[in-house]
Amino acid sequence: MEPRRxxxxxxxxxxxxxxxxxxxxxxxxxxxxxxxxxxVNSETLAAYASKIELAGGTAIPLKADVGVPLDWMSAQTRIxxxxxxxxxxxxxxxxxxxxQFTLLSEGEWMELFNGNVKSSVAITQIxxxxxxxxxxxxxxxxxxxxxxxxxxxxxxxxxxxxxxxxEELRLNMVLPSRASSGExxxxxxxxxxxxxxxxxxxxxLRGNIVNVPLAAVPSRRERDMVNW
Length: 228
Description:
It contains 7 helices and 7 strands, in the order E-H-E-H-E-H-E-H-E-H-E-H-E-H. By secondary structure, the protein is an alpha/beta fold. It has a single domain, classed as Rossmann fold (3-Layer(aba) Sandwich). A 7-stranded parallel beta sheet has the order 3-2-1-4-5-6-7, sandwiched between helices. Helix 1 packs across helix 6 and helix 4 runs parallel beside helix 5.
């Protein structure tokens, strides 16, 4: 049995029902945390929360669009009503562009900005106002996204994290080397990095930005050859 190093901790994970959020939510739950899965799809949130519960963890789904500050504020209030505390937040700010930089429309750029930068700044601001003791770990844009649109996003988030310590906020960021594989085992190194920042004994860590190298995802042909 894994040590329950986060026993008694209440942790919200945005995008907890998809991508890296799944591996992160499961890892935190196995470590003893009560996990709140936040996203916009009620069905997938409920399904993944049930999976965590069946594995012996504690998880609840909560529908909210964290790109909308009022939605996040309502979600945070609801968590406090249910649990009476919110010790930490893991925010997935890792939306990718579906077009090359020169082809990005204004709508696509604003979707990236709202999902990655605006949401991170809004969560940080609301935490400082209402729960300054709550920690925040951001999963930033993947390092394999080389389009120019990725650099101003990473730069903005880097500045936010590096200077949050001056406001006595506990912010850190992890930058995965690639997008989520969809398989929790191959995404586990990122989840372990997030877990480290969540540990109470490491609460002095803030302003850190960690690049997390991950093994390349095998192609379908490579997987088929292994399974043959």
